[in-house]
Amino acid sequence: MKNQPSIVLGTWSWGTGAVGGDQVFGNHIGVEELKPVFDEAMKNGLNLWDSAVVYGMGASENVLAAFTKSCRREDVRISTKFTPQIAGDTYNPMLPQIERLVKVMRSVGDRYGISPAQLALAWAIAKGTTPIIGVTKVVQVQEAAQAAKIALTQEEVRTLETAAESTGVDTRGAWEMPMM
Domain residues for 72? Predict the structure, then answer.
């Protein structure tokens, strides 16, 4: 695909009201707050949006549709899907191992002046994937755009993979082929 963006921006917490983001996420982010987020993303070439009917029972799709009406169709890409289940609230017993992995991520990220969250994006991109992230603030788009510009070395990817393997955290989806 020509000019494929390196990050997908998620809209799952977009919209307000009984079926909007405030119902699930406790936020009250509407069109006025989200329009600058959309504009910043488009300005930075982040034009692939993740959406689904279950995101606020259509509320997020309505907000996204309002923004895309002023764009040329070929300038916006939208991904959607069917989500059959929602995960329950349970304690994650992997938390201590994940915290050790985050410490390594922070160490590598510090070399670039980026956060572990941004490093996770750069790592995913280095592995040949297109990460999907939720955005509700302009700064999140700016941080994602910054992360998309990071080119991790093979040694840094190996360091991250080794840390993940030693903590027992599986960083690959079941569908992915081994990268190394």
Answer: 8-80
Q: Is position 39 within any domain? A: yes
Question: Is residue 17, in this structure, part of any structural domain at all?
Answer: yes
Write out the two tokens for 170.
């599986």
**Cα 156 vs. chain centroid, distance in angstroms?**
21
Number of separate domains in the chain: 1
Q: Radius of gyration over alpha carbons of the chain, in Å?
A: 17
d(CA 148, CA 169): 23
Is residue 98, in this structure, part of any structural domain at all? no
Question: Two tokens at 91?
Answer: 């304690």
* pLDDT 10s digits, 121-157: 999 999 999 998 988 899 999 999 999 999 999 999 9
Structure token pair of residue 166: 């030693």
Classified as helix, coil or strand, 11 is coil
Which residues of the chain carry a pLDDT beneath 50? 1, 83-87
Residue 147 belongs to some domain of the structure: no
Q: State residue 21 phi and psi, 5-degree precision.
A: -60, -30
